[in-house]
Here is the input.
Amino acid sequence: MLDAHPGGFVYAVAGRDSGKCFIILSVEDNYAYIADGKGRKVGAPKKKKLKHLRLTSSVDPFLANKLFEVGKVTNKEVRHAIRAFLGESK
Here is the structure.
């Protein structure tokens, strides 16, 4: 079973955001705070139950380290990481 960790990539499987890729900013109990840097900004992340997320085994090491040390990331960094994860170019 995969664990939810800050900096990890997830897909929403329920709600209006279903099918979209997000990054976990933090985890509390059975909830994860997620953002994509565009529709869901880092300043106002979506609180989503873990059972409504499809976890991936991929973690962005830069974002995970920055979230651990500093506690916050920018929307631009999140967008860049998601684009790289999905293999998209700008």
The two ends are 33 Å apart (CA to CA). The mean pLDDT is 93.
